[in-house]
Amino acid sequence: MSNNELWLGAKQRLSALVGPQEFATWFEPLDLRLEDDNQAVLLIPNRFFAEWIQDRYRPLLDHALSQAGGRPMRLAFEVAERPADAPARPGLAAAAPPPLLHSSAPLNVQYTFATFVVGKCNEMAHAACLAVAEQPGRQYNPLFVFGGAGLGKTHLVTAVGNQVLRGNPGARIHYCSAEGFTNELIQAVRFDGLARFQEKYRQVDCLLVDDIQFLAGRERTQEEFFHTFNTLYQAGKQIVVTSDKMPKDIPGLEKRLRTRFEWGLLVDLQPPDEETKVAILQKKAAERGLELARNVAQFLAKQPENNVRVLEGYLTRIIAISSFQGVEVTLDLVKRVVGPLVSERQVSIEDVLSTVASQFGVKVSDIKGTRKTREVSQPRQVAMYLARRLTRSSFPEIGRSFGGKDHSTVVKGVKKIEELLRENPELAEQVRAAERILTEGGMGGGTRLKGGGV
Q1: What is the pTM of this model?
Q2: Torsional sign, CA 400, 405, 408, 409
Q3: What's the DSSP call for residue 252?
Q4: 238-243 vs 206-210, strand pairing mode
Q5: Which pLDDT does position 441 carry in this prediction?
Q6: Are the beta carbons of 111 and 159 closer than 8 angstroms?
Q7: What are the backbone dihedrals phi and psi of residue 429, each rounded to the nearest 5 degrees, phi first?
Q8: Any idea what DSSP says for residue 248?
Q9: What angle do CA 304, 308, 314 make, to 5 degrees?
């Protein structure tokens, strides 16, 4: 079997195992040379490319070559670097010229601290981001902002960049997502541009990275981010990252990165309460030239939907239909337009009781009972809090569903959890997990919550 036949067979198998873009990026530029019947040498454009292939694809390559050759094959790597003016080596695909590494994603100028609606659910995160923006690198470094989707993480991290630039127009700000960081690193490795990539990221004054959880499981990317983090931190440069969960709860995140994130300040964004949602809706409507009546905003705010982007979507739909039909935005119009969308997301008190009981490892009868031990009282209060947030039930109605509790008991339980959520990020994450199950039908991780997490 010739070199070309063996490599063609191996590539056919590899293309079936990885996506077309991944195959084109990592395997099309390669060539193969047979040393003897059982020894193959893979020709790779540069050493960084070789390291990446070794780390991520070695088992796939071994398997594909053995299948194509019909026998076990020993695989070696050879860096086939050539001068820039030299012709391409016969049989070796010439890589495209190195692209210019893209600059920082542009900061959305509308995402400022002035346009961010502050409530009890986000006041600490807002204050921390503002402090960082006014004195970057001097306190709260790194700043780690976490919370569920649509609660304002991107708004806040972008506001930091805009505020830093307002105070120092010459500051080097770089904003990107973790996915963008990864994709840029891949291009740098492929085209031998790692040195430029490192220079770019390690000379900024403020690094803002969104959705850092997407680095999980990517060992090579985490290694590069680790060294970038160390360089910036030691130089006193500000680092702000966001995530949908706390560092310790991100699966596949290396311990050395997790501990560095925990060096600084961790602040969370909790789901907005009804008053904050009303304020957000009215502010968003005003930005679009609409004065949203309070009863309309309250109707939307009472729906079991905490993702602000979804609420904005409802508002966009309402405004569009109002404009198309030439009618005012009234409560009747909103109920007719949005009602069918939100009615599908209703949560019952029984749903809350069964979900919280399962997650905290207690029985529904325990929550409804009179036992006041810590193992039962906290799940009971969490269930009361979620019942109040996610259903349209009044305090007396909740009390009756909780075994005939007095409405004042429910009020105290809800207030107790609201206080604990502001003080205890771990409990806040536990409550969010239960809420995701109730509103989204699952949380993906199967995490079991424990009582007494204060």
Answers
A1: 0.62
A2: negative
A3: T
A4: parallel
A5: 57
A6: yes
A7: -70, -35
A8: G
A9: 75
What letter represents residue 21's amino acid?
Answer: Q
pLDDT digits (tens, 9 = 90+) for 313-358: 888 888 888 888 888 888 888 888 876 665 545 678 888 998 898 8
The pLDDT value recorded for residue 345 is 54
Task: Give per-residue pLDDT as tens, 51-71.
Answer: 777 777 788 888 888 888 787
Is residue 288 helix, strand or coil?
Answer: coil
Of 365, 367, 346, 362, the C-alpha closest to 438 is: 346
Residues sharing a CB contact under 8 Å with residue 237, sequence separation 6 or more, in sequence order = 136, 137, 204, 205, 206, 207
In what side-by-side order are the strands of the sheet with 143-147?
173-177, 206-210, 238-243, 143-147, 265-269
Domains present along the chain, CATH in parentheses = 3-79 (3.30.300.180), 123-269 (3.40.50.300), 274-343 (1.10.8.60), 349-440 (1.10.1750.10)
| Cβ neighbours of 91 (radius 10 Å) | 13
Hey, what amino acid is at 13? R
Collapse the DSSP code of 119 into the 3-class scheme (helix H, G, I; strand E, B; otherwise coil) and give the result: coil
**Tens-place pLDDT, residues 243-261:** 988 998 888 899 999 999 9
Separation between Cα atoms, residue 44 and residue 55, nearest integer Å: 14
Bridge-based pairing state of the strands 74-79 and 39-44: parallel
pLDDT per position as a tens digit, 419-444: 888 788 888 888 888 887 887 654 43
Written as six digits, the tokens of 430 are 């536990």
CB contact at 8 A, 431 and 381? no
Mean pLDDT confidence for 213-242: 93
For residue 39, what is the DSSP state? E
Dig out the tokens for 89 from the structure.
């080596």
